[in-house]
Amino acid sequence: MIADVSDVSASAHAQDWIFDELRFGASASVQSGGEREDGVFPEVTIFFDPFGSDSAANWTQKLIRPRIHLGTSIGTGSEATQVFSGFSWTADFNDKLFAEAGFGGLIHTGNLDEEDDRPALGCHLLFHEYIGVGYRFDTHWNVMAQVAHSSHANLCDGPNDGMTRAGVQIGYKF
C-alpha cells in the first residue's frame, strides 16, 4: 500500500511543473552589410501549456491550443538583447521529427536610428516570429534548429532593418 501512495505522489509531483519545456542554445545574425549583428547570442526560452496543446488529438486542436513562450536572446558586445513572448504551435511529423512556428512581440536594447553599423530598428517594441525543425531524442530531450525574425512591419516611424538570427537550441520537456 505504501508503494502505491509514493507512486501516486511521484506522478502528481511530475505533473505540477509550472512550465512545459525549457530550451537553451545560441544564435547568430544571418543578415548582411550594415544590418548584420556581430557575435553569438545565448538564448533561453520557457514554454507554458495552459491550453493543453500536449493533449490535443489532431492538427485543428493544436492550432487553437498553442503553447505560450517567454524568452531572451542576450546581446554580446554592443549588439541588441531581446526579451520576447508569444504563442507557439508544434506539428509532429512522427514521434521524433517536428516543426514549430511562433508569433508574438519583443522589446530590445538595439539601435533605433542609422547612427552606426548595426541594424536600425526604428522602435523598441517589435513583432517576433520564428520557424524551426526539431528532433526528439526521447520524451524529454530534443534539439531544434530555428530562424527568428523581428521587425516593426512599418508600424512605427523610423527605419526597419529588422533582426534575423538563426541558431540551435536544446530543449528539456517536463
Describe the SSE topology.
Elements (H helix, E strand, L loop, with lengths): L1 H13 L6 E9 L10 E9 L10 H6 L2 E7 L8 E11 L4 E12 L16 E12 L4 E11 L11 E11 L1
Antiparallel strand pairs: 1-2, 1-8, 2-3, 3-4, 4-5, 5-6, 6-7, 7-8
% residues in beta strands: over 45%
Record the strand order, biggest sheet: 1-2-3-4-5-6-7-8
First-to-last CA distance = 27 Å
CATH topology: Porin
Largest sheet: 8 strands, antiparallel, barrel
Number of helices: 2
Number of domains: 1
Structural class: mainly beta
Based on DSSP secondary structure assignment, what is the total number of beta strands? 8
CATH architect. name: Beta Barrel
What would the average pLDDT be, to the nearest integer?
A: 89
Into which percent range does the helicity of residues fall? 10-25%
Nearest-angstrom radius of gyration?
Answer: 19 Å
In the CATH scheme, the class would be Mainly Beta
Uncertain segments: 1-14
The helix-strand sequence is HEEHEEEEEE
Shape call: elongated
Keywords: Hydrolase
InterPro entries: Lipid-A_deacylase-rel
GO molecular function: hydrolase activity
Protein name: Acyloxyacyl hydrolase
What does this structure look like?
This is Acyloxyacyl hydrolase. Keywords: Hydrolase. One of its GO terms (molecular function) is hydrolase activity. InterPro entries: Lipid-A_deacylase-rel. Pfam families: PagL. It contains two helices and eight strands, in the order αββαββββββ. With 174 residues, the chain is mainly β. It has one domain (18-173): Porin. The chain has an eight-stranded antiparallel β-barrel.
